[in-house]
Amino acid sequence: MSARERETKGRRRRWRPLWALLGLFGVGILATLLSSRRIDPMEEWDDLLDDEDLPPQRRERFPSTDVTVPGPAGDLHVDDGGSGGLPVLMVHGLGGSARQWVRQLAHLRPARRALAVDLRGHGRSAPAADGEYGIGEYADDLTIVADDLGLDRFVVVGHSLGASVAVELASREQVGATPGRVAGLVLVDPNGDQTEIPGKELDGFLASLREDPRDEMRWYFKQVLVGAEPATVERVLEDLEATPREALVASLESSFAYSPLPALERYRGPVLSLISDMNTLPYSLHNLLPEMPVRLVSGTSHWLMLDRPDDCNRLLDDFLARLDSTAAAATAPAAGTEP
Known about the structure:
alpha/beta
């Protein structure tokens, strides 16, 4: 057997645990911060959008505000914009960035506040000074972002690794000082229960990953980009190339040890899962939790929101409309009472 044939065979063997890894995919890093200046996150948008003479169709054309929030391991970058409605906080996956939500942000901001965060060591957020890139640390950062930016009640949308982070955040807020703070949870092609993956299948992958993280992840990403739009491939691989090896390795190791099931049991709010055709393993979340609402977006890569933004936006709108309707009913005066 030639060296090329051995390499090909080895990579075919590594495909077996691949879907378990898919849910981990998320943000890339540019260690430089856009700005060290702290600003009022809504200052510019309030000035623009409170103008009664501003045509509604122009709202989405105004630039967002880049916010720097001090995190426990370094500054965190947030793309913040829009006003009104129930805010939506978006979380990318491993090897990604907040820019992967650009179509959702533009769609939502004419009607409500929408934010996308760069996780530590990704996008324009600083690399972790403490070297920690775990699900728990990411959730800690999101709590700080929500507190700093005044998100009293909000919806969290998480992709892949970001879905696990969103689940952890939602479960903490459910039992924390402000129960019910996370009004809804949207999981976009989430990873399943990674602890269900047989150890023998992980050992070889982790050994190869530690030896050459970028090459291993580049190969895997290309497999799950099958069916992707050309612009999606370009965006995803560019973000991946910018991700430091320590963030890739530490994030993956942490995610393999994380089970989202206990966190989902603690969270009692509305949940929706949007999945691709690839999300079909026995330990995929919707298979482990058959009662969880799920919608299939066919004919896409792992990055649904980039490949089929209109479909994802429509499903997100439906979910948010139900939350808005429930909130309105809860605050409406009872029949026969004064408004």
